[in-house]
From TrEMBL, chains A, B, C, D:
Bilayer-spanning residue ranges: none
Catalysed reactions, semicolon-separated: 5-hydroxyisourate + H2O = 5-hydroxy-2-oxo-4-ureido-2,5-dihydro-1H-imidazole-5-carboxylate + H(+); 5-hydroxy-2-oxo-4-ureido-2,5-dihydro-1H-imidazole-5-carboxylate + H(+) = (S)-allantoin + CO2
Protein name per Swiss-Prot or TrEMBL: 2-oxo-4-hydroxy-4-carboxy-5-ureidoimidazoline decarboxylase
Function: Catalyzes the hydrolysis of 5-hydroxyisourate (HIU) to 2-oxo-4-hydroxy-4-carboxy-5-ureidoimidazoline (OHCU).
Pathway: Purine metabolism; urate degradation; (S)-allantoin from urate: step 3/3
Keywords: Decarboxylase, Hydrolase, Lyase, Purine metabolism
Source species: Enhydrobacter aerosaccus
GO MF, one annotated term: hydroxyisourate hydrolase activity
One GO biological process term: purine nucleobase metabolic process
Protein origin, superkingdom: Bacteria
Entry-linked Gene3D superfamilies: Oxo-4-hydroxy-4-carboxy-5-ureidoimidazoline decarboxylase, Transthyretin/hydroxyisourate hydrolase domain
Family membership: Belongs to the transthyretin family. 5-hydroxyisourate hydrolase subfamily.
All residue ranges annotated as the Transthyretin/hydroxyisourate hydrolase domain in the record: 180-292
């Protein structure tokens, strides 16, 4: 149930808490502290007030708050004792489809993490691929205690920013979405390449999982961005273009088998809220790509 | 045992036949016919004379000659009743390492082929990857009888040209080798990329088999060509460049994870005796490739 | 004075003629013939009706109509006895600023043309640079009489299409404008190049005349297209980018003097109603361009 | 008259001085000091000994030595009272073909320079274009006295290194030559572009002076480097490629007029002893270049 910022600004504490409380999981005091600072001119300002409430809390309160977060891929995720928002987010990186071996790996990393830091591993899974979560686990396990505590809070702020953007609509929305787009230019004829098959894969370990499949339109673009309307999960990707078919259909000589058939462009996304434009310029004998805009 | 063309030109028939006879498998009459046309100014002329002997023979003789060739991947390859030259060549495309399923597929294609045409499937395996052999099987099964008979003879001529180039040294050697090379230019600094890891994979089905692993030298090239001194097997390949490590080692900002890490260039080779130069021009944010020279 | 198509559709002949008559210079019968075919659903349909009136006229009428057109760069242009529309159009390609020598050349070509064909040289000057007009003169002087007569009519149709688009507003406007744009991507840092100086030159003979001067914005584009809202004059152009200054301002090493300083992109426009996107991808050591979209 | 290093090593002082004396203009003491340090294993070591003799001299001696150098573009160049080596070198940058205005500019810069520093402006003209000499004049006029004195000595060392490399042949020759080359790859067909016209211009002020004109060979290269066997003069250059003709001759559609006709690549040379490879990759609709190797 989405609420407008102006309606929210007019609410008494109980109603306010019902809306924004679930944002900061199991910590109703955050909503209460924020309510005292309203009304808010922007949704971003509301989120800033909620973050400020966490930052201003005594360390013991912060620690309790962090400890209250569910284990990623852990027992809590199975037992159903987490908020609906948590459940939804964990699905997006494929953590709900772990193999037994992966499940054990995640679990064991999580145990090592909790043993070292005394709180569960928290990460905004909507901003990461499965691969990236594993990398972050390994990297953050090496942190000092205070660095990691700050990192955990930052991840909570990413999570809550997304939740708030889902829950409240109004002026000054925080930037929580990114965009991945492509464009194919056929420099053999100096025109956009229309009707070329394009696939997007998320790379995980040695595997590649197709997450989009489309065809270029008359302008050489895809009708919709490859990813949009949500954070771009940090991770490795591969675009695959059916360049060989494109020229075969136009009876352009390119060798038998053609010098270029499926052209893969492999790249990583590091900024979930950024715009990644990854175009292809091609002839039957050459191609180039770049991070565009 | 390699013989010089001038020595060969001076030989009586029995010695001559001992040298060039195995070239045209189980067909001593080809060597005899060629001997009558000597001496030869070039090795290419010697091979032309041997091909002419085959072309001039009555169809029944030609057919018997073709039928005498061993089954590819078939019983003959297991039983050891083929010439040493055949055995060596079949190994080069990995046909000696077929899985049981692949073995059955090849065998069944071979049976269908023999049933349709009345002679075994002949292909110069040193000029093809395993993938390409399968493609040729499927394509040639659709041929008319006379087209396919000509194709089979042409493949025998490819095979014998290679054998002759192995057996005789002299003027006018036939062109039987190709070359695959690369070059990495770091256009971020306008210099060759030195010390960059490069791997070459042969693609087969959905798999990729690494066939070379090297590092660029100070000129951005590899010390030796990636493939040289033999035909380039027709097929699909992928070069992989460690672009991410290159820039990480030079502390050049490229994102975390880096926008470009392993850069794959996927291409096909169609001319076994050609020169394929497949360079990479890169920055941390862009790359291009082309069939060069 | 611009009139709407619906108003025009409701007009009696005299008012109708006052609006669209000047479109087909000194030939009121064209407007009259078109009026009889109205009302028109689109401005394009109105123009088609006017062209049809010309095509349906007896050859002698057509010839008189063509002969009534003013001499390009000739006496008529000086004496002021042409319509206001003609005068305006001839200015746009710089024909009003010819040197004495150029004036004589144009005049002599025009005389040769009239001597051969019996009517003045007609060209839609808004669709051509000065250079292109000269080229067309030379090319069309070699035409056969009937081919050239058709060409002259076609040019009149280009002229009148532009005039009609200026005079009448409504549904289904004819496409009479093109667009030239650019974009600079700095692949050294994987971002648009902001604040880079860009100049556009029209090339004429051995000279270059600057027709635009601007700076890229934060997205690497120019705030306005380099040419828009009118036909792109057919001819040769050069874009010049201040790449050296861009990297000097960012303290990026590029040599002394820098390997790339002013980067010129020289290209021609052949389709006045087309979209030409001519981007630059650059590092201090490399650049590329292409006809984009 | 070229002498071998081994012959030179065996010479008594008078003969030795006759060979290498003119290298350090009007300073026979340099040759004498070097002779005492012989024999030399390499020509580079000989030059190092001569430079060392200059560096070890008292400042007054150095100053006298520097002052003895002829005025660039000044009276000495007209009166014939300089060594043959000086005369030859000044010709190479076109200083012997100055217009009256340019002559006055050079003369006035030279006067300002002498007034400030007390010695003539010395520059190794074989390492600079006319444009670059003017730039150096302006830049060096701003130097502090001691910085400029060191710069003047460095220029003398460049001059003498070139003279020595002309006068003595032997092991360990100093690197005094550079190379400028190009290569055209037609990525429309994936092959080198053969028979394409290429011109090289030296840019000076707003003008362009053609210094080479050639045609690509079957490998897309020029039979000889564009510049080789001498230092590459520091300065601005433009390569021009007849891309339009190339595709017109092959009946490849590229627009009328063609989108690309003459393609200019404008670049600077900063390292006279370096290798500049400036290739062109092109289709009728795109091109790219880079500093290659």
């Amino acid at each position: 149930m989405v609420v407008s910022l102006s309606d929210l600004n007019g609410m008494a504490l109980p109603a306010f808490e019902a809306v924004v409380g679930p944002t900061f999981e199991l910590a109703p005091w955050v909503a209460a502290a924020a309510h005292a600072k309203g009304p808010f001119a922007t949704v971003t300002a509301l989120h800033a007030a909620m973050m400020e409430a966490v930052r201003a809390a005594p360390h013991e309160t912060q620690l309790g708050f962090v400890r209250n977060h569910p284990d990623l891929a852990g027992k809590a995720a199975r037992a159903g004792d987490i908020t609906v928002e948590s459940r939804h987010e964990q699905a997006s990186a494929g953590l709900d489809a772990l193999s037994d071996e992966e499940f054990r790996l995640f679990h064991s990393l999580n145990d090592a993490y909790k043993a070292k830091f005394g709180f569960p591993f928290i990460i905004c899974v909507r901003r990461h691929t499965r691969d990236s979560i594993l990398r972050q686990f390994e990297r953050r396990l090496k942190h000092e205690q205070d660095v990691e505590f700050t990192t955990a809070l930052q991840e909570i702020f990413y999570i809550t920013r997304l939740r708030l953007a889902d829950a409240v609509i109004g002026d000054g929305m925080p930037k929580v979405t990114g965009r991945l787009s492509t464009h194919v230019l056929d420099t053999h004829v100096g025109r956009p390449a229309a009707g070329m098959g394009v696939e997007l894969y998320e790379l995980a370990g040695d595997g590649a999982y197709r997450i989009a499949r489309t065809v270029t339109n008359a302008d050489g673009r895809t009708d919709a961005p490859l990813i949009a309307g949500k954070p771009l999960p940090i991770g490795r990707y591969e675009l695959r273009f059916a360049v060989g078919d494109h020229y075969r259909n136009r009876a352009v000589e390119g060798g038998d088998p053609p010098f270029l058939d499926i052209v893969p462009l492999r790249f990583s996304i590091a900024e979930p809220e950024g715009h990644y434009h990854v175009p292809l310029l091609c002839t039957p004998w050459s191609y180039s790509t770049y991070r565009g805009s």
